[in-house]
Amino acid sequence: MNKRVPKTAAFLFTIRQKENEPLRDCMQRFVEAVHEVPHVNHELLASIMQQNLSPGRFKESITGKPPSTMEDLLMRSQKYIRIEESNASNPSLSGKRKGEEEEKESKKKEERKHLPPTGFQYYTPLNASRGEILVLAEQQGLISQWPTKMEDNPKRFKSDKYCRFHRDRGHTTEECHHLKNEIEKLIQRGHLKEYIYHYPQGRQFNRGSSALTPQDDNLPTAGVIP
């Protein structure tokens, strides 16, 4: 009589979720397979399950916070099984939730577009407004590339603020982070020396405190990006 050879953990990697297979059915097959593998490590189970699942919220959940035990894995799967079955029994609700999630993601992407660009750790203090410096830089042909048009936004259209650098509404020229970075780049290339603010003799710029200049809006608090 042939002795049955126990299956190894490698067998579990074959229990993959099929296309359009309900999570309940997939979990049932996986649990049955686990019972055929003696002494399998719980941490390994979570890793295998992550690879075997189709993309979805349950997979994201156990990837972000892996279950510590098999019991934990099963308990957490029940939550997503209920959600999946609830959505299947009410397609209109499922579509609504999907639409809400897509809308949230769209808003997040839009917000990220309007975040200030990554700039310098420290900015050179200036003795004039950025608007004045922009006029000179434009006259001398120092601006090689103007910023692209800002994304359409209803709130921006209603704004009474105008930026000469973007040539559009939404924020003022002085508030423009793109212009702030552009001016700093030009200074570091050796341009605009006449617009660098020099502190009076005996007074030092302490990066650990606030130091004001005639154009104090050009200086970030504590010498860093505001």
What's the rounded overall pLDDT mean? 77
Which ranges are low-confidence, i.e. pLDDT below 50, for 5 or more consecutive residues?
204-226
Q: What is the correct CATH architecture of the largest domain? A: Orthogonal Bundle
Terminal-residue CA separation: 79 Å
Q: Any idea how many domains? A: 2
Q: Which term fits the overall shape?
A: elongated
Number of strands: 2
Examine the coordinates and then state which fold CATH places here, giving the name of the CATH topology of the largest domain: Non-ribosomal Peptide Synthetase Peptidyl Carrier Protein, Chain A
The major beta sheet can be summarized as: 2 strands, antiparallel
Helix content: 40-55%
Rg, alpha carbons:
30 Å
The number of helical runs is 8
H and E string: HHHHHHHEEH
Question: What structural class should be given to the helix and strand makeup?
Answer: mainly alpha
State which percent range the strand residues make up. Answer: under 5%
CATH class of the largest domain: Mainly Alpha
Q: Give the strand order, joined by hyphens, for the main sheet.
A: 1-2
What would you note in describing this structure?
The protein has helices at residues 23-34, 42-52, 57-64, 70-89, 91-113, 130-139, 154-158, 177-188, and strands at 162-163, 168-169. The chain is 45% helix and 2% strand. The chain has eight helices and two strands; from the N terminus they run αααααααββα. Helix 2 packs antiparallel against helix 3 (57-64) and helix 4 packs across helix 5. The chain is mainly α. A two-stranded antiparallel sheet has the order 1-2. Residues 204-226 have low confidence and may be disordered. It comes from Sesamum radiatum (Black benniseed). Residues 206-218 have a biased composition (Polar residues).
